[in-house]
## 1
Amino acid sequence: MQTSERSLIKTQSHLGGLSALLKAAGDELRLGVLQVLAHDSYGVLELAQVFGVKQSGISHHLKVLANAGLVSTRREGNSIFYRRAHVATNDALAITKNAIFTQADSLAMPAELQGALANIWQVRSQTSHQFFLENANKFKAQQDLIASYDVYGQQVVELLKLTPFKHRNNALEVGPGEGEFLTPLSEHFKHVVALDNSPQMLANAQRNACTLHNIKFILGDTQALSTHTQTSEPDTTATFDCAILNMVLHHTPSPAQVLADVSQALNPQGALIITELCSHPQSWARDACGDVWLGFEPTDLSRWAQVAGLSPGQSTYFALRNGFQIQIQQFFKL
């Protein structure tokens, strides 16, 4: 095949891709789907509920978006979740795809759509909350089946020591579990806030950290941080120099929203350290440990963090004998 023929075939392929891309973007509902998928991933049934259409209808729209390279999928047990596709820098249509994403993001999301998303998050949150309500006393034993604190705790402590904090006044841990990491936080910062939306889990952390006198325990989710920062006690400033999320995000209804909330509560140049499971297929973790998500791709965490105004720092990955893999990622507030 001659060079001119190869060039013609390549051009035709790009034109076909551009045609599919413009077709995908030429529908109001599909643009709404791209807008919704900007900060989170959703299953077909969830998206059908959000947009008030039949499952077959939303599946058709998702297929069109997928064929255009605008959405990708990830498997969560027996369910398929959709998210916005990552655009490769060498993609011939990268400029157009990113322009579509940027334009969708620039439009205000309708109030009814925001309300429908809030309902989805509420259902996810209630499922997680009910699990901890019923299993707080045995959660540690179940969590240890996947990754106990001893497996990753020391590595997080070492990263904490190496992190160049501008100030060491206030630290936040979201979902402190049994309170193991509150000890190193209390040693490195003047004041520490432990935030948990489960009263049983918060009580466990408070009981195990009873000898630490610079810890404030708050019942609520990360959206409660705005209330805390507005009503801070005299010995607590309105924002944090450090935030810790150890094995928490896979229990939350909207990981992207959690990162946005935490970023908002961080001081400029403040640091966030996340310990999480990498994506895995072991769906039994949902029932055993109340997991909403079966881990995350590192690129997902990085993308959500970037949207939230955080820049990446160091990262570490290591596999466990039971088939799980852990990631520890560090981010800084811009």
## 2
Amino acid sequence: MKARVRDTAAAPTSVCTAVALSLVLSLALAACGTGAGGDSGGAGGPRIGVLLPDATTARWEAQDRPLLEKRIKELCATCAVEHANAKGDVALQQEQMDSMITKGVDAIVLVAVDARSLGTAVAKAHAADIPVIAYDRLAEGPISGYVSFDGVEVGRLQGRALLTAMGDKVPGAQIVMMNGDPNDPNAKAFKEGALSVLDGKVRIGKAYDTPQWRAETAHMNMSGALAALGADAVDGVYAANDGLAGGSIAALKADKVAPLPPVTGQDAELAALRRIVAGEQYMTVFKPFGPEAAAGGAMAVAAARGQSLGKVATSRVPTRGGEPVASVLLTPVPVTAGTIRDTVVKDGLHTVAQICVPQLRAACARAGLT
């Protein structure tokens, strides 16, 4: 039987990326030692499953997966990482969870396609003494740890930015809300945060939930909103992430809306940063994937070794129908054209050369990116 991970050390409730990184570093240094809790060496090292939700959102395969794998290997040279992507299919992810349980992996990092539906699979892993780290999305069931960003604050940042961008049109401005996947608990947190800022200050002409965060669905819904409200009656667009922003902007441009209303976003995707420089998208929210993956990888290694997750955690988050679990909640960062250099470029997510393609040279100069 595997040793079940028990979180015995309650962590302080402050949320701070620097603290999280310091604690992760401490765990990394501890991992260099030998004796109890160390690697068994050779091919007998711990096995960690990494289950991602879809290939639609660029960050999962381009950022989170390589960063998680890198951090796990840094902390545990003999750890083996087994990866699978559910491609937006709940049933497929349940099968992938079953496969990891059958293989007897030592820990699972899970980004749930549907938090509620995966609760049963999480319970099965728990019964098999396999700890599950909920990554980015708070999965239901008896998880052992949770790593993410403050989702409500993400929504607040988006809402505040939209109000700022609409300027004199507030109060009384009319917006369209392009919310995320209703099965993603993060989408609910984003919406909650945005509405806490926007309620009473704008009219919500149309609001849509977007299953699986599909940009093409956002395009279709925005086209419908323009037909219903009028192309000149949309003063702003709340888009929960950059994919939805891209779909919404494509629909606005297809309908010849000019000038484009301000549009929010999230994830600091390269395409979104180019749209921001070009003046098509107003802002995005940067969630530094490095610290998130560092904390997620540290939790996974600690869990696989049967160690307390309290050494990594910076807070404790209540779970649905369960006890609070060891958690790391990181701070999101708003990004507009004038702050790209001091945020995503400074952090190393994208380079100026990647953002400033030839057709954007003049716009990049205006944004201070030359």
## 3
Amino acid sequence: MNEGLHLFSGQFVWIKKVGADDAGEPLRQFLREKMNLSRAAVTAIKRDGHLEVNGLPVTVRRVIEENDQVTVTFPKEQESAGLLAEPVPYSIVYEDDAFMVINKPAGLQTVPSRKDWKRSLAGGVLFYLKQHGVEATAHMVTRLDRDTSGLILVAKHGFFHEMFTKMRKAHRLSREYIAIVHGHLDTHEGVIDAPIGRKEESIIERCVRSDGRPAITHYKVIKETEAFSVAAVRLETGRTHQIRVHFSHIGHPLVGDDLYGGSREAISRQALHASRLFLYHPVTEEAMTFTAPLPEDMKRLVEH
């Protein structure tokens, strides 16, 4: 069987050949260092999955040699309790056995909320996976507000979700956004460094406050119209509503974002789109970049 990730009867199997540099080390070390599996993941695989070398069951103490074929069978996952699997509109930008990249339309929540526990992208992904015989739950690695459009990363197993989370902390996974804001910014390129916390007496709204969590937003203006500025935005941190709060804080709220001072005359939702996603593949370690064009409602603002 070839190296790489395979899906058999709804179960994930990862096969990797041992190189000369890894010969003579215990399998445990190979799993941690070359397959990036955490100690907890290895424990779960030992308990509910399978470990083989050259087709034979082994323990993590097994000493491996060059050209050995290591086969890891991941434990099956339980479907998320309370997540309703139902079809919802979205487009798949990329998919393989490890993950999906999805272009989410505005108006669709990423995960269920207390107000609306039914219709969500997570439920749509779960429906899709079940239709294709994948015994997994919906691991939403990245999320977007209901009315923000654009790219979302979905892992097909908790182990890959964990890998992507570590990748993001190491700044090896990043997203870029396009934001359309009111007015013209003083500088065409800059950094907004202002801590964000929950606004008093609100469970939804955030604000800049001295006791908030650190939040850093990088921006570059790429176009100006008579009334608006179009900015490419990159986040150094990932606070709730960060882009919306930061641009409102400097006096340039997002167009359509009436929660933070924007006007809805030109567009019925915040003009924010996750346009670019960069990551390293958790299995092949290939550098990958995905893009999603502006949706029509934002494109109309830019073109006028």
